[in-house]
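Sorry, can you check?
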Amino acid sequence: MNLGFQLFSEKGISGIVIKKMAEKLKVNKSSFYWHFKTKKEFVRQLIEFWISIETEQIISLTNTENLAIQKFKALIRLAYKKMPNQDFIFYLKRYAQKEKEIKDIIDKVDLQRIGFIERLLKEMGYSEQDAKIKSSLLYKHLIGYHEMIKYQKQNKNYEDEVKMELNQFIKY
C-alpha cells in the first residue's frame, strides 16, 4: 500500500504498474493478484488508505483534545503540516474525471472534512451560518495553502503563519 500510495502520488494511475511494483517489492506478479483481484480494486484500497490517514486519523487525533479551541489548534497543526505524497489528491481528482465512483468518493470526503470543521466551529461558538461559510473558506484555504507550498520547504513556524491568515476570518 505504501509503495502504491507513493507511486500514485508521483504519476497518478499511470504510476501503478503491477509488474514494476512486484519487481520493486521483490515478489512475483501473481502475489499482487492474490491480494488484489484487479488493479482497480488495488486503487480502491489505496483510496481507502488515503481516507484513513488523511481524514479519519486527523479527525480522530483532533478529537482527543478536550476543549473546542484545543481541537481547532490540533486540526490546524495536523492538516496544514506538509506531508509526503501531497499530490495523491491531485492525481486522484484527475482520475475521477473518468471514474464517477471515484468522484463520488472525493465529494463525500470533502463534505466529511467540511462538516467536521463546521461542527468544530459551532462548538467554538460560531453561529450555524457563520460556521458553514467559515468551514468552506478554511477548507479552500487549506487546499490553496498546500498547492502554494508544494515545491517549497515548509517553514518551521507554519502554524503561526497559518494562524495569522486564518485569524482574518476565524479568531482563535
